[in-house]
Amino acid sequence: MFSYRHAFHAGNHADVLKHLTLLPTLRHLMQKAAPLTLIDTHAGAGLYRLDSEAAHTSGEAARGVLALRAHIAQQDRPAAALADYLALIASFNPPGAQDWRIYPGSPFLMQRLMSAPERAAVHDRLRLFELHPTDSRALQANVAQLQAGRQISIEAADGFAGLPRLLPPPPGPGGSRRALALIDPSYEIKTDYARVASAIGQALRRFATGVYLVWHPIIPRPEAHGLPRRLKTLATQAGRGWLHVNLNTGSGKSDTGLAASGVFVINPPHTLEPQLRAALPAVLRALGRGPGQGWALETAPAPATRPTRAD
Ligand code: SAM
């Protein structure tokens, strides 16, 4: 069985980048009053304790979201996406708390946006997959507290296989079909890279207008290096636009572990690029650790003859 447990990594720089990309994407899609199917193929446990032994041992949140929070507290006018992200994390903690104890994972961030009063009549749905038995049980227990009923489903199953099964999503009352999928594996197994590309290929064939977000590590390994290139090819062949954002925190003297990661978005909303460009300089100032640090953002629009977005 896998040994990866997200509790050691929750709130780290990779979560910051991933959730900072996810939230403005969702906010944009949710401006339209038509239901969305949200899919999280690798959901994790849903909620994480920042005061747990796991979080203290790794210290990753301290160098991630907590460092960002401290940095932004000194700023008069943080970028809108950063302010929104931090406010959302704060809302899972007691009002005005000095120390954050909880970091919400992607299922809870998505659920929080789905349950906003203006979405209540829209009936968005959240479909979660988590294969690790312990995290899957934790996710079940955490989600049960929301009393969300059939709005949220959880399968203790393989998310790569689950994604195409859910596509195309069911139509809303007006007939439109809308979906966003987050694909966020741990890449513990080398074959995950190929499985991401295969799942995206199938997803685009079944539902080309879906919005797909893929998180990936940037590490010196051929499969990792090749994944963004494969995703660009798949998106381009399907005639879809894409956005690719990378964050490298660089390495401090005693740092070990992952320093850089990226998020690849197929069919990104047009508002995402300016929001990330406004936010990332401050993220890097807060999270940068030394040599190699930087961020990069690249986009390609969909060919003009096709609809460019699912929104
Ligand atoms: N998406 C979560 C978030 O942002 O809060 C974090 C997910 S974590 C990076 C990856 C999770 O995928 C782990 O909890 C791991 O147990 C789970 N996992 C690994 N392989 C899987 C698979 N094939 N299908 C579903 N879940 C899997």
Task: Describe what this molecule looks like in 3D.
The chain is an alpha/beta fold and 311 residues long. The protein is 38% helix and 17% strand. The chain contains ten helices and ten strands. The protein has helices at 13-29, 53-58, 65-72, 80-90, 106-114, 133-144, 159-165, 192-206, 222-237, 272-287, and strands spanning 37-40, 47-49, 102-104, 125-129, 152-155, 179-183, 211-217, 242-248, 260-266, 294-300. The strands form two sheets. The protein has an eight-stranded mixed sheet, with helices on both faces. Helix 1 (13-29) packs across helix 4 (80-90) and helix 3 (65-72) crosses helix 10 (272-287). It starts with 12 loop residues before the first helix and ends in an 11-residue tail after the last strand. S-adenosylmethionine is lined by residues 2, 4, 6, 15, 18, 40, 42-44, 105-106, 129-132, 135, 158-160, 184-186.
Features:
311 residues, alpha/beta, 8-stranded mixed beta sheet, two-stranded antiparallel sheet, 10 strands, globular, binds S-adenosylmethionine
Our estimate of the beta-strand percent is: 15-25%
Helix coverage percent of residues?
25-40%
Number of E strands: 10
Q: Please state the average pLDDT score.
A: 94
Identify the bound ligands. Answer: S-adenosylmethionine
- Sheet/helix structural class: alpha/beta
Q: Radius of gyration in whole Å, from Cα?
A: 18 Å
Q: Label the overall shape.
A: globular
